[in-house]
Amino acid sequence: MKSGIKSEVYDKLAGIAGNVSNSEIENWQKQGGKIVGYFCPFIPEEIIIAGGFLPYKIRGTGSSDTSEADEFFDTKNCSFVRHCFNHALLGKFDFLDAMIVGTGCDHTRRIYDNWQVAPLKTKLVYLLDHPRTMGTEGMEETIITYYRAQLAKMKEYLENNFGVEITVPKLRKTIKLCNETRLLQKKLYELRKVENPPITAAEMASVLMAGASMPKEQYNEDLKTLLNDLSSVQGIKKDYQARLMIIGPAIEDPVFYSLFEENGGEIVIDDTCFGARYSMKSFIDEEAEDPLHAIAKYNVSDVPFCPKINGSHKNRIEFIDKMMKEYKVDGIIGQGYVACDPWGSSFGMLSAHMKDAGIPYLRLEREYISTETGQLSTRIQAFIETIGGRK
Amino acid sequence: MIVGGCDLGSTTGKAAIMIDDKIYCGDIIPATTKPALTANLAMESAIKKAGLNSIDEIEYIIGTGYGRQKVPFASEDISEISCHGKGAYWALQSVRTIIDIGGQDCKAIAISDKGVVTQFEMNERCAAGTGRFFQVMAKVLTCGLEGIGSVSNISDNPVSISNQCSVFAESEVITLINDEKSIPDIITGINQSVAKRVVSLVRRVGIHDDVTLTGGCSKNLGLKKALENLLGTTIKPLPVDPQSIGAIGAAVFAKEKLLAKRAKELEVSSKE
Question: What's the pTM value of the predicted model, to 2 decimals?
């Protein structure tokens, strides 16, 4: 662990994050458990877990090539979907019993399209439509109702294909379970507010990633142990030059984090998929009469939002401003994959806001897996020097 | 006080030595396949120009450029963006916008009235709008880089090059050659196409006078003219070699760092 603490549970979680498969998954399957793949934070794990499944977020960890996937995807599709699908084609996700794809953006949707025609072992694949509008006055309940209906369909799909029943009491239980995960992850985030955080951004990312790759009950126990391990740690040296907030799609590449560490940038907070956009939302109503409605409401109206949602810019700016204050942020990094359309257009608006507000802002276009790092490193170093020059 | 800067670019190596406030630039060294060797060759040339006997006389050296971490004799490294800002301001204090067009990057840098970088923009990974683009075009036109930069090549009837990718633009130029377009028309078209690309970067940081041009491509007069037309302002020449500005900036930083280091040492010893 770069921060220097010795924590067995951290080593375990980092190991899970560092590989596509892990022993938790293998044990689950040995005991006859089924695994459902997904990605996009708005696909509710609560429903998957209530069906007795293990939700597994697919990712391109360890991928270095997209040549298999390039047969199916166009060059204008982003590297995230291509690396993930490449893994799928290489059989790395053969442990999945079903796959749920969300309409996060047009690139991710193509995973659904291609999954149906590609020679993959996992035959069951489902497309969950997530609404892309909010903030239209008077439309809120219509949008929630629509998503609730979509979730009910997804629930039925799992029930019918696997002969399980996803009941209201089961959903209440899993809502509580996932709320606890978010609460524990929030506590982990809190630790990064101080000058000497006991855990680095890259380490934190591994811990969060592990949470989407193993059973939640065990994960929550591991998080509690980790929080306890971290409580007595001195923390990293304050030899960094700038505290940064990073915004954009998921960062699942350790090399990308290292570029900041090498250049004196400490990422203290984020607005990324499966980072803050999973952990820093509020909680799902545990007492709701209709849990599906509560889950739907949470996933269409709670900040921070994916930029694919029309009308979410204002909420994003509010969230960023709030986090900047709480985490004493010196500068903002807007990073996105080449060809990322939701973030691509969002960054233009963000850049204008940052300029008006006088906030140092760096836009980085990158690939899901960093290969050529020279130019990225120059930009990051120069940006941190610019912040240093202002101080 | 003797300090130095070494700028290991993608295409060339440059070094500058500052003795008190006077700058001595070495020759521009074509990059070899070994960054340390390029750095040594560049610094040896600067040492000769400065009339020094050995590198040991230089008290502090800063590395910059693409290979900044590979400069064997540097005490630390600073990005070329900060160094171009520092160097251009040192050379001409009225500069607020710097356009640096090097071998594989082009950058637009805004600096404050104190010479501090406030904002910058850089081309995305591909070679469009950089020296490499010109190299590819010079090869197709068999005119050499000097031919592309020559003022006598500026035409009033330039062709339009629509492709930004140097590989595709190369085929586009081959088509134009086969259509028997005149070489000055094609060359002016190439310079205008690069200038358009660069100006969109400059607009992001804002065009504030004075604007200056640094990096290897600053020697391309056709490009300079195309940039001036699009920017609607004149590009101020610098009193030193604009290709060595990164190395000069690194040397200026080296002086500041050395002074700060000495002040700190003095503070510590006075406390003891």
Answer: 0.90
A182 vs A332: CA distance, rounded Å = 24
- Whether residue A386 and residue B105 make contact (CB cut-off 8 A), yes or no, is no
Tell whether A102 is covered by a domain. yes
Q: Give me the residue from A365, A382, A390 closest to B79, CB to CB.
A: A382
Alpha-carbon gap: A353 to the closest alpha carbon of chain B (Å): 13
Task: Give the CA distances from residue A146 to residues A16, A109, A158, in Å, rounded to whole numbers and listed in that order.
Answer: 36, 19, 19
Q: Is residue A377 part of a domain?
A: no
The C-alpha angle B27, B30, B34, rounded to 5 degrees, equals 115
ipTM for this prediction: 0.85
Of A338, A379, A386, the CB nearest to B117: A386
φ and ψ at residue B25, rounded to 5 degrees: -100, 140
Strands of B153-251, DSSP E: 211-214
Number of domains in chain A: 1
Which tens digits make up the pLDDT trace of A258-304? 899 999 999 999 999 999 999 998 999 999 999 999 999 999 988 78
Question: Cβ of A378 and B116 within 8 Å?
Answer: no
Give the CATH number for residue A100.
Answer: 3.40.50.11890
Q: Which residues of B touch A378 (CB under 8 A)?
A: 66, 79-81, 105, 122
Q: Would you give the DSSP letter of residue A306?
A: -
Contacts of B105 in chain A (CB under 8 A): 375, 378
Q: What is B94-231's CATH superfamily?
A: ATPase, nucleotide binding domain (3.30.420.40)
B2-84+242-271 placed in CATH 3.30.420.40: yes
Are the C-beta atoms of A387 and A242 separated by less than 8 Å?
yes
